[in-house]
């Protein structure tokens, strides 16, 4: 199903994921008194991908936060696997928000070691994932000396190092160039080939095979 040009052998061998289903039913969301989403049903199976689109301010980030359990819905519920409704186990979500989780004065080596250690992922996974994202040569550069696109690539490595089955990515390709978007597609294809799933909010066209699309502009 998933076309990949990067050989799977170039990706690190991580502990197997525990794939999860995600189901939202009758979800209604508001922010600042404005109804953003009304009665939304969605389902995502292991290996699935969903792209959230829509103009600025239509609620893509809010929906991602609701799926992560960070925003309380006005109505409806989110269920992940057999986890209790409204609760998400700590080892389920790989989250990449607008921030990349990097400190300006820290080298990528230092920062990504921290994140790998925090998630119990072997440090040997760092460099292969950086190479997949095309930033292996930047490992000893402080994050503050990198371009926005390079920082985003490092943020994606950080998210992958968490080795979680359900990725929620907010504008993962925002500052990426075409090559960066191709590398992101490879990273996502690898994740899906392991049973992982992904939901991403995007203003970019992302060519992820078989990805479902949800345009939040329809509620406007
Ligand atoms: N802290 C807040 N308090 C009140 N309203 C907010 C707050 N944050 C966001 N909003 C409102 O919620 C709506 C949805 O915002 P959200 O960030 O989810 O949109 P988005 O689709 O992700 O936008 P973008 O494409 O610009 O990232 C917007 O209309 C915004 O004004």
Automatic annotation (TrEMBL):
GO BP: cytochrome complex assembly
Residues of the ABC transporter domain: 22-218
Keywords: ATP-binding, Cytochrome c-type biogenesis, Membrane, Nucleotide-binding, Translocase, Transport
Domain of life of the native organism: Bacteria
Record has Cell cycle as a keyword: no
SMART domains associated with the record: AAA (SM00382)
GO MF, one annotated term: ATP hydrolysis activity
Coiled coil: none
Transmembrane region(s): none
Signal peptide span: none
InterPro entries linked to this entry: AAA+_ATPase, ABC_transporter-like_ATP-bd, ABC_transptr_haem_export_CcmA, P-loop_NTPase
SUPFAM superfamilies xrefs: P-loop containing nucleoside triphosphate hydrolases (SSF52540)
Classification via PANTHER family: ABC TRANSPORTER I FAMILY MEMBER 1 (PTHR43499:SF1)
Protein's recorded name: Cytochrome c biogenesis ATP-binding export protein CcmA
Organism: Maricaulis virginensis
């Amino acid at each position: 199903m998933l076309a990949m040009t990067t050989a799977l052998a170039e990706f690190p061998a991580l502990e197997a994921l525990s794939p999860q289903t995600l189901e939202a039913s009758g979800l209604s969301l508001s922010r600042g008194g404005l109804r953003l989403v009304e009665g939304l049903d969605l389902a995502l199976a292991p290996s699935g991908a969903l792209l959230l689109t829509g103009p600025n301010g239509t609620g893509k980030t809010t929906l991602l936060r609701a799926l992560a359990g960070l925003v309380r819905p006005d109505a409806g519920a989110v269920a992940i696997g057999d986890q209790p409704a409204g609760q998400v186990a700590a080892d389920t979500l790989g989250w990449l928000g607008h921030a990349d989780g990097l400190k300006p004065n820290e080298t990528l080596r230092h920062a990504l070691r921290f994140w790998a250690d925090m998630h119990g992922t072997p440090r040997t996974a760092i460099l292969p994932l950086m190479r997949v994202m095309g930033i292996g040569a930047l490992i000893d550069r402080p994050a503050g000396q990198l371009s926005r696109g390079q920082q985003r690539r490092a943020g994606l490595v950080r998210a992958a190092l968490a080795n979680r089955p359900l990725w929620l990515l907010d504008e993962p390709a925002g500052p990426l160039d075409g090559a960066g978007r191709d590398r992101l597609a490879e990273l996502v294809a690898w994740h899906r080939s392991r049973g992982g799933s992904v939901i991403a909010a995007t203003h970019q066209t992302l060519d992820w095979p078989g990805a479902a699309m949800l345009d939040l502009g329809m509620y406007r």
